[in-house]
Every structure is written in C-alpha cells, then in structure tokens.
Amino acid sequence: MATPDPSLEESSLPSEDVSRTSEESRLGSGESRMSSWESELTSVQHSLQFVLPLREEFVCPVCRGVVLNPQQNSCGHIYCFLCLQGLLESSSASSRVCPVDGAVISPAEVFQDNCCKREISDLEVYCTNSPECTSVVTLRHLQEHLRSCRYERLQCCNPGCRAAPQRRYLQEHLTAACPHRTEPCPHCRQPQRLSCIQDHMQSSCPEVEVDCPVSSCSMKVPRHKLTEHRESCAELTVDCSYRELGCSVQDKRGRVTLHQDAAVNHHMLLVLRSNTHLEQRVEVLQEEALLMQQEVEADGSLLAGLQERILPLLQQNISCEHKVSAAQRTLSRQEDVLSTVQLDVQQLSRGLGPGPKRELEELRKSLDAAIQEVSAAEALREHLGALEQNLKQHSGLLQLHAAQLGTNERRLRELAATSYDGKLIWKIEDFGSRREAEVRGHPPCLSSVPFHTGACGYKMASKVYLNGDGEGKGTHLSLYVVLMPGDFDALLPWPFKQTVSLSVLDQSGAGNHQSLSFRPDPASQSFRRPAAESAGNVAVGFPRFLPLGKLETPRDAAYVQDDTLFVKVKVDMAGFDPL
C-alpha cells in the first residue's frame, strides 16, 4: 500500500493523509473479513469452469475473473477486494474511476457486498482437474474438494525429485517409481538413495564381499573384514618375524610359518647374538650412567663446597654492612663538627690573642682526627664493595653449577627410562591430582620420556590428556604419539610408515587392556622428518580413546589402581629394515 512521501511540505499533508488513512482502515477491515476459501482461490479464479454461464455482474471489471470478496461502489458495480485495493493504490484521488461507467470511486462509499458474496459462494463449478475428475461442487467448497481429489497433482517429497504425480499415483510413485526414493542396501540393509545404491555397494558397503588385494589369493571377504583377513592371508608376502634379529627370509605367510618352524636353531643363534649385543649396549649405558652419576656427585660436592665458602662471605657481608652503616653515621656527625670548626677558625683568625691560638691548635688536632676517621670510613666502604663483587661472582658460579646439576639429573632419568625396542610402558602416578589440575587448566597435557624403535631408530614420545582434548575434552581420555628429532633421522626412511598401537593397561590381572591402532598417512606432515630445531611434529592419535567413566569405574578391569595409570605404546616394525 502506498505511503506518503516525507519530502512534501507539511501544509500539503492533512487532506491527503486523512484520505489515505480512511482508505486503509476501510480496506483493511474488508481484508480481515475475506474468507479462507476466497484467499485460496485467487491463483485459479481465472481458470474456473462454471456449470452455468457466469453472470456479468459477478465478473470483476478489473481482472475479468469471478469476484472474490466483493466490494460494491456507489455506481452499483462490484470488484474483487484485492483488485479494488490495487486500483486505489496505483492511481491518484482524481483518477479513481470505475472501469465500466467511469463513475468516481470514493473509498468512503465502498462497502462489502455480503449478499453478492453468498450468491457467488453457492455457484457450482467443475473440479479444476476436469475432465479426469467429473465432480461438481460449489465455489466455496472447491478447495476442500481439491484437498482430497484423486486427480490433484502433488509435488513428490523426495529431495531432488521434481515429479508431480496425481494423488491417486503418489504412493506408488514414492515407493516404486521415484528414482530419488530411499531403499535398504541389499547387503548391509542401511537406507540409501536408489540412485546411490550402486556407488555405495561398489565403494563403501561394509558387507559387500570383495577380492583380497593380494593377487594370488582367490578369497572373497566382506569389506569390513578385509584388514582382519590381511593379517591372516596365507598368500601375503611377509618377512620372517626374526628379521630384526638378522633373518632375511621373505615369502608367502604360509611358507614363512614353515620356515620359522624349521629354522629354530638358526633363529636361536640370532636371538643369542642379539642378546649379546644388547648386553654390551646395556653395559655401555650402565658405564655412561655411572659416569654421569659420578659427575652429578662431583657437582654436588662442588656445590656443597661453594655453599660452605659463601656462608662466611654472607656473614662477613652482613657484618661489613653494619660497620659501614655505623661509619656513615660517624662521618655525618664528623662533617657537622668539621663545619662548626671551620666557622670557629674563621672567627679566631681575625686577630685573637695567644690564648685563643692555643684553642685553635687544639681544634686543628681535633680536625685532623676527624679527617682520619673519614678516611677509615672510605677505606671500609671500598672493602665492602670488593666483598659484594666477590659475592656476586660466587653466586653466579653457584647458579651455573645448580643448572648443570639439574640437566645431568634429567638426562640420567631419561637414560634410565629410555627403551630401544619400539615399546614404551609409561607409569603415570598421582592420577587424581593430575587430572584435577588439568580440569583447572594447568598443565594442559602430560608427556612421556622419549623412546626409540631401535638403537639407531626413530625417536618418539607419548602425550596424554587426562581430561580429554578436542572433541573428547571433559568426556574421554585422549592419547597421542609424536615423532621427535633423532640422531639418525638422516639415515631413516621417511615418511614414517609403521603401525602404532596405543593401550591403557588393565591392572586387575584379567588382561582386559584397552587398545587402538593406526597406520600412518604418508601425506600427513605429522609423519614427515621432524625439523632439527623443533621439539617434535604435531601429535597424532585418538582424542576419544577411552570414556572417563569407563576409565575410572570399569566393570571387569582396573585401569586406575593406587592412583596410578599405565599407558603402553608399541610400534610394529614388521617390514622395516633396521640400520
């Protein structure tokens, strides 16, 4: 509806605004009395077929369709409510005339013709779906009929389908004909769109049987059991399980099994040789640990000696500070006396007799004594400065030895806990207090000591969030593993490709350990060679490894016992040729 232009002068508004307000109020009241069936027929009012020819007075002179919600003018002609509303809004007050006889239309004289409305509502019309539907109904009941007419066209409700079948065929279309309908997969019975079922079966259905990826194996297994089958496929080429110990046999799994059964003596020799090497390595490590322990003890002794030397210096410093303070007070008093003596000397030097000269001599002696005391105080101050400098040097040396001692102790602990077989058993004590601290935000996670996949292998560590991380925060234990810069990275193959297993160990003796494994994605930066200047790559693992409720109160296991949790990390080195 048109609104007044606010740019007009105020003097031109009153009559125009009153007229528009009157029109709006009258037409608004007409719209409020418009029946629902009339508003629903506005889209088809020009295509209606009446049983009897439509009388001319029931034809709207504006739209030439049957009049809906008739409004009568003073000239006697009737209009659709919406047509009259549009006519009044699109024309000025001087050009609002009846299209039939040119009579002026005055909104004040327009009224709703209820008598005509009753006659029109009782007119008989054919169903809009004729000739298929032969029903004849009154105009007011046409929409009610269409809501149940078997020939009415309805839009298919399946996403992506544009078909509009008749109501009598809709159910058949939805269940049998629509190409966008949902059907259960014949294998896994999961609902899928009909057009996507073939792609689903070819690419992702877990129950479809597929060929074993090993070309020489003729077995077909369900897709979701493919990994399990690969672990036992007799045609898969594998290494002897003693490869890390020096056995170079590589053949199909069945033949490798026979080889392992037949070459027990050879394998035992390899085990003994490996054990000998490990024992030598352990002896070297023990010697290194002993040397480091001796260094720690020597540093501790040196630290104790420095502390003993510094203690007298501190006491001497305190004593010197007291002496300096007393000397400063004496110096201040002597300066006052000196000033007074100087004034007296000036007065006496103006021609006094022999008696005053003797007093002057005594004053000079007193002045000399004061000067000596001042010199002694200055010497004491210089001595105090030298002591302070000496104290700073000893304190710096003490801090340096304390830092070195801490570094040696940390390296000793890491050396004692480091493993070289690709396995880590991580004992996490004070579980409750550590998790409570993590809930409060400090520290965000715990990190294990590093471990290695071999004497010259990959260097790794584990990280755990006791209160969860990411999507598992507050609900799960999160467990990760991270690759760290190692001494032999330049000789190792990259990216890292070995399968990693993470476990939370059951301490009840039932062996109900919770374990999850992953095989590295070669495209991920987390498995590339770590930068030498970094602490490690981005950690990879499971943010929702184990629900906290199952961790703390399991049914048939004990994961947290005596406030201690054990985490295990195992790297599968099958297929890896060690240096």
Oligomer state equals single chain
Helix/strand-derived category reads alpha+beta
* Rg over alpha carbons: 51 Å
Unreliable stretches:
1-26, 28-32
Give the helix level as a range of percent.
40-55%
How would you portray this structure in words?
The protein has 579 residues and is an alpha+beta fold. It folds into 3 domains: 13-146, Herpes Virus-1 (2-Layer Sandwich), CATH 3.30.40.10; 266-417, Helix Hairpins; 423-571, Apoptosis, Tumor Necrosis Factor Receptor Associated Protein 2, Chain A (Sandwich). The protein is 42% helix and 15% strand. It has helices at 14-32, 36-41, 81-90, 114-121, 142-146, 167-177, 197-203, 226-230, 253-262, 264-348, 354-417, 431-439, 548-552; strands at residues 71-72, 78-79, 111-112, 124-126, 136-138, 182-184, 191-193, 209-211, 220-222, 237-239, 250-252, 423-428, 446-447, 451-452, 459-465, 476-484, 500-504, 514-518, 540-547, 560-561, 564-571. The strands form 7 sheets. Strands 12, 17, 18, 20 and 21 form a 5-stranded antiparallel beta sheet that branches. Strands 13, 14, 15, 16 and 19 form a 5-stranded antiparallel beta sheet that branches. Strands 2-1-3 form a 3-stranded antiparallel beta sheet. Strand 1 and strand 2 (78-79) form a beta hairpin. The two termini are 87 Å apart.
Descriptors for this entry?
579 residues; alpha+beta; Herpes Virus-1; Helix Hairpins; Apoptosis, Tumor Necrosis Factor Receptor Associated Protein 2, Chain A; 5-stranded antiparallel sheet; 42% helix; flat; disordered N terminus
